[in-house]
Design a protein that fits this description.
The protein is of the alpha/beta class. The chain has one domain: Vaccinia Virus protein VP39 (Rossmann fold, 3-Layer(aba) Sandwich), CATH 3.40.50. Helix content is 25%, strand content 33%. The protein has 5 helices and 9 strands. It has a 7-stranded mixed sheet, covered by helices on one side. Strands 1-2 form a two-stranded antiparallel sheet. Helix 2 runs parallel beside helix 3. The protein starts with a strand and ends with a strand. One of its GO terms (biological process) is rRNA methylation. This is 16S rRNA (Guanine(966)-N(2))-methyltransferase RsmD.
Length: 181
């Protein structure tokens, strides 16, 4: 399977149900919301899947993209996709492993935009949002977008983060956070 991103660029995805690419409608809406803030930003893509969100950020001028993904085959696809779209001034890194463990390797770094898209029925939401807050991964003027089901969501609000907006797109929703300190 393949998908297209900004500039009509085609990306690879894994076959089957191993990953769930973010719908084009949701991807487009997110980048419209964050329009004007992607160029030169530091981007973190958690549960990156095919890396489409990070690839889109790189296409729109992000200076750094870091992805965390558990599936080995998906990590190879992310690297291929990001290599295809990144220019010589942009850097990217893909970390393989459980997001709850790998996120700790990012301590001391800050990101302007964070996109977190775990499997909807997973138990990852609370521990990962808590880790983002505890490790202070979100820059003071940054935003974090969490993709989740619009049907089954209990908003998690760690100390140091606050919800600043929510958007619903059919069965998918995005909850946006910013730093509260």
């Amino acid at each position: 399977m393949s998908l297209r991103i900004y500039g009509n660029r085609q990306l690879k995805t894994l076959p089957g149900q191993e990953t769930r690419p973010t719908l084009a409608m949701v991807r487009s809406a997110l980048f419209n919301i964050w329009q004007g803030t992607i160029a030169d930003c530091r981007w973190l893509d958690l549960c990156a899947g095919s890396g489409a969100m990070g690839a889109e950020a790189l296409c729109r001028g992000a200076s750094v993209a870091v992805g965390v993904e558990q599936a080995t085959r998906a990590c190879a696809i992310i690297r291929q996709n990001w290599q295809q779209v990144a220019n010589e001034t942009q850097t990217f890194q893909v970390l393989r492993g459980d997001v709850r463990q790998r996120i700790k390797a990012l301590e001391g770094q800050q990101f302007d935009r964070i996109y977190f898209d775990p499997p909807y029925e997973s138990d990852l939401y609370e521990p990962v949002l808590e880790a983002i807050a505890h490790l202070q991964l979100l820059a003071s003027d940054g935003e974090l977008a969490v993709e989740h089901s619009s049907d089954h969501w209990s908003a998690v609000t760690p100390s140091k983060l606050e919800i600043c907006r929510q958007k619903v797109y059919s069965n998918t929703a995005l909850t946006f956070y910013r730093s509260s300190i």
